[in-house]
Amino acid sequence: MTTIARRASRKYPASTPYLFIAPFFLLFIPFGAGSVLLALGIAFVDWPLGQSPEFVGFDKFATVLGDPLFGQAMGNTLYMLVGFLLALLPLCLFVAVLLKQLRRRTANVVQVVIFVPITMSLIAVALVFDLLYNERVGFVNGVLDLIGLGPVPFLTDADLAPWSIIALRIWRVLGYYAVILFAGLQSIPDEFYEAAQLDGAGAWQRFRHVTFPLLKPVTLFVLVASSIAAWELFAEVQVLTDGGPARSTLTAVMYIFGASFEQFDLGKGAAASVVLAFAIIVSTVVASRLLRSDDRA
Amino acid sequence: MLRPVAGREVTRSGGQQGSIAERLGRGTVVGLIVVVAAFPLYWLLISSLKPSTRLGEVALIPSSVTVENFVAAFDTQIPRWMANTFGIALLTTLLGVTVAALAGFGFARYRFRGRSVLFAMVLASLAIPEYALVLPQFTIMRQFGLLNTWAAVILPLAANALVLFLLRQYFSQLPEELFDAARLDGSGEFRLFWTVALPLVRPGLGAAGLLLFLNAWNAYLLPLVMLTNSDQFTMPIGLAFLHSQLNFGIVQQSPWGAITAGTVISIVPLILCLLVMQRQFIGSLTAGAVKA
């Protein structure tokens, strides 16, 4: 590699590589790296929209951390995240294993069908689910009405609404993650299963001792990606419940959005963003540890 | 190694095994999965074709079918929002692929001072959640007077670290001999990029373009913050806006017709893409999963 580089270094002007990367960095510096720094900076100022910022130290963090509403928003988000992951992971593993047992052509068709929801915007998905959940025009309630089970308040009951949101989320991403896991499954050599079968391993044991350990890196990706997405829950909730009823579906990003663009307190919004980003990093580390410690067991 | 493993066809191990009962059970479960995945979409389509007075009807096959909702959708700002969405997604894709291809080539084919630091910076940004950047991006756009312009959405979306990473992988798999040969012929470095490298990474460009397009087409938080004038809305923002009128009963005439028809219109392009190029589509979207 170094010899190539040394040889190469004589072949073009020293500025060439910089010219190639310059256009990307022209965008990345303000909107990527610069925005990260700016977000950190804004968290330390009082900056009502339209006025000039004033340094206030950790005041905004104190405001946010002392705000019971923020605690509730983080709690709701975590609650929906845990419910979402507990349902999603077994389901998408199950679908992936099932896909592998199908005939090639059937698997390819099923793969395409279950992949459709991930191509839709969260808003489109939310509107589709309103057509199912809605108490006046929703399909599910229409059917329940027919058999005399009355309308179920999917989105207007504080206990039920978070689960209605979780179901929507699962519908949107299940196929996507199942297809990713399915791709991982296909890279496990058949010989491993044949050997396990010769040793008398049943279906569950084959899953437990062959599939699961070998699929761990892909499972970790699914766990991390889906939990980050769950922390960022916002669009579908805003459309379907607007955080209600009784703030039972108020999410962290919704709190940040409200602080920044409804109360116009940019410092408070940025401080809450930093806290949430910290929570995401912690949960990502925890997720990777969970799967790694399993290795030693 | 990055390889598009998903969407690949099932190899030897596929195929039905087991007793008739097992196969029957499996078939039932698969059928159930397909129905659960497809039914909400079927219901959306049916709802968009029903007269608005019959929206609540639960019949699986509607008693009467009409295009009045699609006609009604054209009386709203939906055509304009579609044009905005299409324009923003297309320009984001063009700009994003261009800058990421140039930079991917630069990072893959040259060694230069600061290379690892700069690349590490780009990779690290993948860990930063999108919502955390929207607020600073908003203050930047406001500073430059770009709120309510396409640029406010396009510029942040075009700087996509995942796409850069993806294209760098494609470029670094090309053999150096190829470039040496072209250099002997007297080609300049940009010509190497344009005539030698680019044609060889065409699949990568396709995947990158699809990722950028889909991301821009479906973006919500960023355009919601940047575009506040309803003439500038994209489809997700516009549909959410119509739906909010529904909840607050602002309009007498129920906009459900426009909402269902608009939702259908907004999801059809990408679903068609998926159906036409199934394997490439699924491969591109799952490419990020195989980084490790």
Give your account of this protein's structure.
The complex is a heterodimer of chains A (297) and B (292). Chain A has 297 residues and is mainly alpha-helical. Chain A has one domain: MetI-like (MetI-like fold, Orthogonal Bundle), CATH 1.10.3720.10. Chain A contains 14 helices and two strands, in the order H-H-E-E-H-H-H-H-H-H-H-H-H-H-H-H. Chain A has a two-stranded antiparallel ribbon with strand order 1-2. In chain A, helix 2 packs across helix 14 and helix 3 (59-66) crosses helix 14. The longest helix of chain A has 33 residues, at 68-100. The two termini of chain A are 40 Å apart. The model of chain A has no long low-confidence stretch (mean pLDDT 89). Chain B is mostly helical and 292 residues long. The N and C termini of chain B lie close together (7 Å). Helices cover 70% and strands 0% of the residues of chain B. Chain B has two domains: 20-66, no CATH class; 72-290, MetI-like fold, CATH 1.10.3720.10. Chain B has 14 helices and no strands. Mean pLDDT of chain B is 88; it is low at 1-14. Chain B has helices at residues 20-49, 68-75, 78-109, 115-125, 130-143, 151-158, 161-172, 176-184, 189-200, 202-218, 221-226, 235-248, 256-276, 278-286. The longest helix of chain B has 32 residues, at 78-109. The interface between A and B is large, with 109 and 105 residues.
